Amino acid sequence: MAPRIFPSLICTDPLHRLDAVRELEALGVDGLHVDILDGHFSPSMPLGLDTVRALRQHTGLPFDVHLMVTDNEFFIEEMIALGVERLCFHVESALHVDRLLQRVAAAGIVPGIALKPATPLSVLEYLLERIDFVLLMLINPGFAGHRTETRVPYAVRKVAACRRFLDSRGAGHVAIEVDGRVDFDSIPELVAAGADILVAGTRSLFHPAGTLGENLTRIGSQAATGWTARKRDD
After folding, report:
1. What is the arithmetic mean of pLDDT over 195-203?
2. Which position among 38, 132, 179, 196 bears the catalytic label?
3. Which is the catalytic residue, given 19, 35, 71, 98?
4. What does CATH list as the number for 4-233?
5. Residue 185: which pLDDT band, with cuts at 50, 70 and 90?
6. Domain ranges of the chain
7. Can 64 be counted among the known catalytic residues?
């Protein structure tokens, strides 16, 4: 199965978000990646709940929600009320991880766990029966807009290690989602290493050198190259 592509909503023009969402929907993207930041766990707040609620009324695209917050319980309930399709939260900020995952799944939402770059994969050991995907941050949460913030040098290595970790524990069905500085050049190696879902932002889908349609085609081509290499190595 070819990797899925989720455009990052926070990378759209704040004054023209609905137009961008409609164009993305017309292009046939797999869903929208929706970052919810509280200004505490992460230092910025690019999307408010009211904006997310409003957009939800104007698109049928699945919402892939990534919570970067300290009060996970509050925001999970807000997302359940919105009827989002996918949701992950950070293990680093959750006190009762297992209970929260059960709550998400009970609401009919696909549950996942997000990890900051330096968080070891061992924290997933007792969560594999509860999750359908792992989101690996390739930059520090909330710093995507900082030009000096680069992808961590061990990004590809961690994706590959995560795929081995999952497969070795009989959890090969758990998808790996990668988020942060996913650019055109890195897509083949990230997919080859084990990435199943690409969060596409300013370094790829919203790159100013091309239109959304042109960039999406290029992402698909790069992902296909990585997928071919991955299947060859299996």
Report:
1. 97
2. 179
3. 35
4. 3.20.20.70
5. very high
6. 4-233
7. no
